[in-house]
């Protein structure tokens, strides 16, 4: 029988994001983010839900940190809300906003939990959307870098693990679109595919400037990472011909060739540039050098993947649709493809060519149709099944020598699931939103057992 034991120094953690859990939308100097505006716009978010209260973590963070201690994690990934720190997006710093994160981090450290702070998880200041259209403008990258300096200079004595941006493709390519209404804030139609790619280029520039700002502002040596949800191509079976096809397909799947490639190699993928033609974004002199900063780790958010097979066409591969009956969790896109975790890590090493770069799984988890039984318990055995299979894939990656160093489960608790509002639950802790009661689910106990025994159980 295989024992899925992890290395002794493996990092076990959980993850959340500011807008999804904090609430306190107008307290202590915070001003609106684009998500406040978006969720308050009729028809944008399911059931008219907003993040105004969410899990009320802003007031209940001590209780939530105690939950983490109960779970046994020693690493916690959270995000810092730009509109709490610099409410107008640029200019004056709101010290009351800074103080909240000082309190949170001090509480984490009291429980011997290491903070991993994401500096941007989609909640950009509405003021900058009003001023110049957010990520449509290069100015956004420079304002972001100034915000980073403000945060790191104030919190760098307490936080030494920083992540610049979360999932560039989601707040650019899902926030801007041609001829359709985008599902994500700021939810803006643009006139060309080139304009969409321009937004992700500006985000990459923000990442590069942000890396420089972190290193300049940190009072102590620190770790800097980018978090990306790269689109994973998976061979239909692991014969050499299909493995080669999956690697060939990787740069043109999702936005890989124009996000993870420039960030990690300093150049857009040639295969992607060929596909884009006239829609290649404008790249100024020096941009790629700024974007291609040295990183201490890559955060990899992974939930599903795309099957690929070798094909007798000019590309040499084809993407496969999922059959009608394919199993998935409680999201339209959440097909259960546990190998995605292994193949994503393998592609980073072999296809992108960065075997030197340590990888952290910064998000992995699933929405399930959780219900509280008459005894007040939640038996989410479907989530346990999903997590167990993905952790086995993580174990495989480590066993084969790929540099996977840690795992942050998404999410510590149910939360505001963006355009799905409170209808979809990703947590291992159930939130009763009417009472704000926290109920650890069966998956909470299962994950605690994995952490305690340092293996997949």
Which spans have pLDDT < 50 for at least 5 consecutive residues? none
Number of helices: 16
- CATH architecture annotation: Alpha-Beta Barrel
Level-1 CATH class name? Alpha Beta
The CATH topology corresponds to TIM Barrel
CATH superfamily: Glycosidases
Strand order of the largest sheet: 1-2-3-4-7-9-12-13
How many strands appear in the DSSP assignment?
A: 15
Distance between the termini: 12 Å
* Fraction of residues in β-strands: 5-15%
Secondary-structure content class: alpha/beta
Cα gyration radius (Å): 21 Å
Number of domains: 1
Mean pLDDT: 98
Q: Give the overall shape.
A: globular
Report the sheet with the most strands, covering strand number, pairing sense and barrel closure.
Answer: 8 strands, parallel, barrel
Keywords for this entry:
457 residues, alpha/beta, TIM Barrel, 8-stranded parallel β-barrel, 3-stranded mixed sheet, 16 helices, 15 strands
Explain what the structure shows.
The chain is an alpha/beta fold and 457 residues long. It has one domain: Glycosidases (TIM Barrel, Alpha-Beta Barrel). Helices cover 38% and strands 15% of the residues. It is built from 16 helices and 15 strands. The strands form 4 sheets. Strands 1-2-3-4-7-9-12-13 form an 8-stranded parallel barrel, surrounded by 5 helices. It has a 3-stranded mixed beta sheet with strand order 8-10-11. Strands 5-6 form a two-stranded parallel sheet. A hairpin with a 6-residue loop joins strand 10 and strand 11. The longest helix is centred in the middle third of the chain and has 25 residues. The two termini are 12 Å apart. The relative contact order is 0.14. The mean pLDDT is 98.
């Amino acid at each position: 029988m295989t024992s899925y034991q992890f290395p002794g120094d493996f990092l076990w953690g959980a993850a959340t994001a500011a807008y999804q859990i904090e609430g306190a939308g107008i307290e202590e100097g915070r001003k609106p983010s684009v998500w406040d505006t978006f969720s308050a716009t009729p028809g944008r978010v399911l059931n008219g839900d907003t993040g105004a209260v969410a899990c009320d973590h802003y007031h209940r963070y001590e209780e939530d940190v105690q939950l983490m201690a109960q779970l046994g994690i020693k690493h916690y990934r959270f995000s810092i809300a730009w509109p709490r720190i610099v409410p107008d997006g640029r200019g004056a710093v709101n010290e009351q906003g800074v103080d909240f994160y000082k309190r949170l981090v001090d509480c984490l450290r009291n429980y011997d939990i290491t903070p991993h702070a994401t500096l941007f998880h989609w909640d950009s200041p509405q003021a900058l959307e009003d001023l110049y259209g957010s990520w449509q403008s290069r100015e956004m990258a420079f304002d972001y870098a100034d915000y980073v300096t403000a945060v790191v200079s104030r919190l760098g004595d307490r936080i030494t693990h920083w992540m610049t941006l979360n999932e560039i493709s989601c707040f650019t390519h899902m926030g801007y679109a041609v001829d359709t209404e985008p599902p994500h804030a700021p939810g803006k139609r643009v006139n060309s595919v080139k304009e969409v790619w321009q937004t992700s280029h500006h985000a990459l520039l923000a990442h590069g400037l942000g890396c420089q700002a972190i290193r300049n502002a940190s009072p102590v040596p620190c770790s800097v990472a980018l978090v990306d949800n790269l689109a994973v191509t998976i061979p239909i079976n692991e014969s050499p011909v299909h493995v080669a096809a999956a690697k060939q397909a990787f740069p043109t799947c999702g936005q890989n060739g124009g996000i993870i490639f420039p960030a990690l190699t300093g150049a857009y993928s040639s295969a992607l540039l060929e596909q884009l033609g006239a829609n290649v974004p404008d790249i100024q002199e020096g941009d790629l050098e700024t974007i291609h900063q040295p990183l201490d780790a890559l955060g990899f958010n992974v939930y599903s993947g795309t099957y690929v097979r070798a094909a007798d066409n000019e590309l040499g591969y084809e993407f496969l649709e999922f059959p009608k009956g394919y199993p998935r969790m409680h999201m339209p896109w959440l097909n259960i493809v546990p190998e995605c975790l292994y193949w994503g890590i393998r592609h980073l090493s072999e296809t992108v060519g960065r075997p030197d770069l340590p990888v952290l799984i910064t998000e992995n988890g699933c929405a399930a149709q959780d219900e509280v039984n008459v005894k007040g318990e939640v038996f989410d055995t479907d989530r346990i099944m999903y997590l167990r299979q993905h952790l086995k894939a993580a174990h495989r990656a480590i066993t084969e020598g790929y540099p996977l160093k840690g795992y942050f489960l998404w999410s510590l608790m149910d939360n505001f699931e963006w355009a799905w509002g409170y209808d979809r639950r990703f947590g291992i802790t159930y939130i009763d939103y009417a009472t704000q009661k926290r109920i650890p689910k069966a998956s909470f106990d299962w994950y605690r057992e994995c952490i305690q025994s340092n293996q997949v159980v």
